[in-house]
Amino acid sequence: MQHLAEPEADPEKVRLEQVAALTDPATIRYLEQIGVREGWTCAEVGAGAGSIARWLSNRVGHFGKVHAIDIEPKYMEGVTAPNLEVRQQDITTTPLEAGTYDLVHCKILLMHLADRERVLGEFAKALKPGGYLLVEEADIRSIQRVDPPSPLLTRAATALETFFYFGGADPGYGMKLLPAFRRTGLKFLGTDCQLTAVQAGSPEMQTVALSLAKLAPMITKIGLMGRKEVEAAFDQLQQPSDTVLYTPITVAVWGQRAED
Ligand SMILES: C[S@@+](CC[C@H](N)C(=O)[O-])C[C@H]1O[C@@H](n2cnc3c(N)ncnc32)[C@H](O)[C@@H]1O
Questions:
Q1: Is the pLDDT confidence value at 2 over 50?
Q2: Which residues form the Methyltransferase type domain (predicted)?
Q3: Annotation: CATH topology of 11-256
Q4: How does residue 179 score in pLDDT terms, banded at 50, 70 and 90?
């Protein structure tokens, strides 16, 4: 069992891969619905461990191109293909090139950025005429729902949410995405959301546990929870039991730039 004092090697890569494993099936459904096809030029922004960039690179083929963009691209080591270019880029200071992409996709990115509405507008401008934008953002408030009720886990969920606010992120941005997307002026095509119920002690619960482990030092430092309390919450997530909680809700919205 993983313990706060003994983190696994590279837990951030494991965490990114587990977030992707939970959320990629829905992302791929949306990409299929949009109709991504051979020859497209795509930007995967905030690409994380690169699983969707890899999927896109397989889909667009030899004549297509994928730009996998991340401020910290080291977790994409090993994600390589002739049509895939990994770019280290801070999307808040270096925008995507205007009028360039058939598809721009991001997942769980904008909620972390202070200037998220401007960046969303730049994604819309980066589309070619007829190009598609797919944005997926989380609402982490769903993790407060625990059954059977656990004041400790609810307190940990509240601490995570408060920490996000303090750090300039918007933990409920998923719910704001739809009106923000409409303000871009793109043609709205669809929206959906997904979440998973995860049980204490299951491999899926590791994703929630790793997120808590990542933020635990900051949460205790600013006094949102004591270290012992965080460790008790961590144990409750990892010990097999009937305790179930929801993952963050991921809200997806997609749309299209008008043809010229
Ligand atoms: C929560 S992870 C999500 C990763 C991936 N989209 C997924 O859903 O599996 C957010 C990613 O965005 C990247 N990121 C954060 N701020 C960024 C910025 N300003 N420019 C580019 N990438 C950024 C992080 O390094 C991280 O890989």
A1: no
A2: 44-135
A3: Rossmann fold (3.40.50)
A4: very high
